[in-house]
Request: fold
Amino acid sequence: MRLCVVSSPARMGPGPGSQLTGFYPGRWLMLLALRLLFLVPAGEPVGRSDSNMPKAMDNVTVRQGDNAVLRCLIDSGVTRVAWLNRSSILYAGKDKWSLDPRVVIVTNSKTEYSIQIMSVDVYDEGPYTCSVQTHNHPRTTRVHIIVQVPPKIVNISSSVSVNEGSNVTLLCLAIGRPEPTVTWRHLSPTARGFASDEEYLEITGIAKEDAGEYECSAYNDVSSADVRKVQVIVNYPPLILETRNVGAAVGQKGILQCEAYAVPSADFEWYKEDRRLFNGLNGIQIKKNGDISVLTFFNVSEEDYGNYTCVAMNKLGASNTSVLLFEVSEPTSSTQIQEEKTSTILANWKGPGAVLDGNNRAPAGMTPSLWLLVILFVHFLFKF
Reply:
């Protein structure tokens, strides 16, 4: 007799070793006879075979959820056959002894006796025995089924919010067969290269640049990796960016800006000298737009010029900076008229050596050099 095992895809289910209960006495006698005749034959070691029963595979690997077909090749000298899982009888000839509906007989002929276990799970792992009774004595051969399990992350740290400078430990536990490899990596483009091939990722003295998503991957050779992510928020006090002084004419609009990065987001206050400014008073507006505070003067007066202080604060601290609103001269009307006339003359002049067409001819008898002198004279005349 020859025994071999093959496998094919399927799904999960209960273990195959369950026994039927409430048997009548005849079945109990039959069970006892099978164990005495097939399982523990006197003088014959388990796993021994003769030339008529080639050796089967020692180990068979099946992925969780697949079907396993246990095939037992026999010959005409066989009188009785049975499949067993440890000490439980699964099938004896055509009779099913297992209570598990996933165990079915697929072939029962003069040359082959095979069963199938559908939707193999981890509790199906272990030894299986094909027991054969010949005319002379019984023979048994054992096969060990190994169940592979895809990786699965079963425990991972929750998203966390910490203060800058703290120590952070992230945990990622995974199961699977073979045992999965666990890795950590920081997904931020500004990452400092945090990565780990361990279940734990430890960050000492975390900085604001270390905030963002951290990805845990668990993988083995059974299937694709199981991936989970953790969000790490780093709290830090406000950091004010460089401000720019602003010039505005009397009666015009003036706008001062103050930008600060912080987690949590910063609140802003504006001061002139020791006096705090409030929105809507004295014709000013204070408005926050994300990380930027904007102080607007809709009608700048002489009293508005001077140095202003912007204060950005959150629960971790405060920062301040100064910005200057200074006076600029407004162009007079005569200056604007002169600039407009000069611009018009220069726009019509194409310069020495320019080609003049019929629509833009110089006065008759005037050379390009004389035309240039006339333009310069007119320019200085308006200037003075």
User: Anything to note?
Assistant: The longest helix spans residues 333-348. Residues 157-237 form a domain with the Immunoglobulin-like fold (CATH 2.60.40.10). Residues 287 and 294 are 5 Å apart (CA to CA). The radius of gyration is 45 Å.
